[in-house]
Amino acid sequence: MKVGLVLEGGAMRGLYTAGVLDVFLENEDIKIDKIIGVSAGALFGVNYKSRQKGRTLRYNLKYANDERYMGFKSLVKTGDIVNKEFCYDELPNKLDVFDNETYKKTPEEFYAVVTNLDTGKPEYIKINDAQKDIEYLRASGSMPYVSKIVKIGDKKYLDGGTADSIPVDEMIKMDVDKVIVVLTRPLEYRKKKSSKRISKWYYKRYQNYIDTLNNRYKMYNDEVEKVISLEKEKKIFVIRPSRLVDIKRIERDTEKLKEMYDLGVEDAKNSLNDLRNYLKIKE
What is the C-alpha to C-alpha distance for residues 283 and 212, in angstroms, rounded to an integer? Predict the structure, then answer.
């Protein structure tokens, strides 16, 4: 039996996902074959495949208030609200080293979702080597309006969540038998329509991407409804925040970050028995 895992993004709400994944690491009978991560789901999710329990929480708590990490100063200075040099070089290679060798050896297939600016469509990039493929991970987490366009070869990318926030359909296409979905919003959350003027001004050279941005709210809400429907039919298993945590996308309050992580741990532990039944894991 093959098991797929879908990880929604959400910037610092991704600490919830980190908590869920750390519980999975503690319970070795929960085995995953394929993972699709979106934005923060990809950036934080790689620590599951590298078997680095606690790493996501650790470096976020340590550097949340470090101006080198993320924030307005980085946006003004570099054009990216998340600092490229610090987050994708100094941090994983020196300050809190990412275990890329373990990542490459562990059996799960890991995919990051990116959005192609020319087509406006999602692409699902297999990340075989997290160091060599780090630009795809960076692209997946590069939020519209506050990030530079990421150029890889002759293609231009931004946040994967723009075009496919909850890629359940793509996971099902990968011929898995069971699908676990980790969301970062409570059950009742739906996106609202945003102004079209901003996208037209920012991305006037990329009409397909503008259309994708303007329809993102509908795409997201449709995907949420599909998740709910598949969950009711017991075709997928969903772990989502059991309550609202008032957390910003770029959150510096370490207590809120820890609260989001702890909620992920709590909800995952409370779901374990039902998850094992869904996966047909025998005691």
Answer: 46
Instruction: Provide the sign of the torsion angle of the four alpha carbons 201, 166, 250, 241, taken in this order.
Output: positive
Mean pLDDT of the chain: 96
| CB-based contact 202:162 (threshold 8 Å) | no
pTM of the entire predicted model: 0.96
Asked whether 130 and 46 are in contact (CB, 8 A), the reply is yes
83 φ, ψ (degrees, to nearest 5): -70, 120
Backbone CA torsion sign across 168, 172, 106, 262: positive
User: Would you state the structure tokens that stand for residue 96, as one six-digit string?
Assistant: 């809190």
> Measured between alpha carbons, how far is 104 from 113 in angstroms, rounded to an integer?
19
* Alpha-carbon distances, residue 167 vs 49, 142, 163, 171, 184 (angstroms): 19, 18, 9, 6, 14
Per-residue pLDDT tens for 157-209? 999 999 999 999 999 999 999 999 999 999 999 999 888 888 888 999 999 99
Taking the C-alpha atoms of residue 252 and residue 166, their distance in angstroms, rounded to an integer, is: 26
Q: Which of 141, 15, 12 is nearest to 83 (CA)?
A: 141
Closest by Cα among 224, 222, 196 to 211: 196
Residue 37: which of 63, 56, 54 has the closest Cα? 56
Structural element, H or E, at residue 4? strand 3-7
Helix axes 55-63 and 40-49, enclosed angle (nearest 10): 130
Specify whether the CB–CB gap between 34 and 176 falls below 8 A. Answer: yes
- What's the distance, CA 15 to chain centroid? 10
Q: Phi and psi dihedrals of 224, rounded to 5? A: -60, -45
